[in-house]
């Protein structure tokens, strides 16, 4: 089996054409899968969807898709492939909701496991002092929300979009406007059940098999397939006060964001976004928001300036409205936004968390959802955010953008650094997300090539200016880049790979290791 250096060597060579011994050619492996006795089944045809993802840029067809009905199905399949040994190129990718961006959930000529077919297993909610939900790795967060709300409970930390699976987001981090307070989703899990790259089923937590637990959290699917997770819950609010204010000066905007995340008694959600060169601004971006002062707001003009929108939310219950109003006013009085640009809205907790789904429906109607998504997500140390903003928003992108640009700080003291997630070295870092959509046939500024070039320029600037940034949802094509990404965590990452997936069977679409053959 692969010892660490052997894996390193393998990953050095992942571009080389793999040698497949004749008795394990790719065409007869699917045949051997058919002999396995399972609760679920394999499909060998009509698997094109498994060669696609939200990014819509990488397409690798698997030989088979497993539709598991039980953990046993997954463990049996992985074990079978493991026991073929290093003589076959066969790999396995768990596929959650397929919302990866660069083929990370694909397995070229391998087996894709359709994790959502596990979702028929019940979501179990446990009330009490330390409430939690017991869910399968293939459950969508939206369904977990619906179920926990029936008990007046909710997970604490979210992503902006809820049609993603538990296994999919826990393989990265799961970051949204609550992360400054609760840490990312990977910090709000009590226990996991995992099928390792050897096909073993292992229960792990902070107390039991802790190394595997932390390896898998943020582990890019490299160490095991998450088949079950125990998610920590809190009491759910009924309503949300949702607030947006504008700034024209970046450092005032970021100082206010940092002020808010530093306070113990702050909002429940803090994010922000950049508005570049948008005319018709006030009719456009605020949709269901009302200006606090309609007449002054109607006179506000962006004059083509780049603006920064701070977005905040406070959870409350209808019987607590007075307290909520007082707290909102107190927090807002500490900020330095443009006074006429205070916009307010009140929505249910469910509608607030599910807000991106409304955009999805609209974009789908216009045929603009299933287009290429060359997204770029960065984590930037606080000390470098002003330089970054000046160069990127003020210079590189000062004319147009191809989608939202989110920007908000998180406080890392709430984050557990034993997970596989890699972050910049400072205590406070910003998530900056360029969520671009490309128009498929365009060769202009909204075309894929232009946006990819722009992303490259941003990354080059970060490197040459030594900003100490890290990619979130990272994507690299050489081992040198992966090594640099992991930095001092690379050795641990390699050791864990050799312990839990020694043949490098799992999640080949991340392109970190190639199966040893
Ligand atoms: P997939 O794309 O199916 O899988 C992702 C990776 O995880 C693959 O390598 C796969 O092999 C592996 N994997 C999948 N399931 C398992 C499992 N059970 N066990 C082990 N490995 C597994 N992220 C944020 O943090 N915050 C956001 O606010 C946010 N918003 C988003 C909004 C949209 C519209 C989209 C498309 C993505 C967003 N993301 C966000 C990114 C998202 O978290 C990742 O793309 C995530 O991987 C998607 O989940 P999925 O279930 O589709 O996973």
UniProtKB/TrEMBL annotation:
Instruction: Specify the species.
Output: Cannabis sativa (Hemp)
Query: Under which main EC class is this enzyme filed?
Result: oxidoreductase
Q: What is this protein called?
A: cytokinin dehydrogenase
GO BP terms = cytokinin metabolic process
- Would I find DNA-binding among this entry's keywords? no
PROSITE patterns, per the entry: FAD_PCMH
Question: Which family does the record claim for this protein?
Answer: Belongs to the oxygen-dependent FAD-linked oxidoreductase family.
What are this entry's molecular-function GO terms?
cytokinin dehydrogenase activity; FAD binding
Necessary cofactors: FAD
Keywords per UniProt: FAD, Flavoprotein, Oxidoreductase
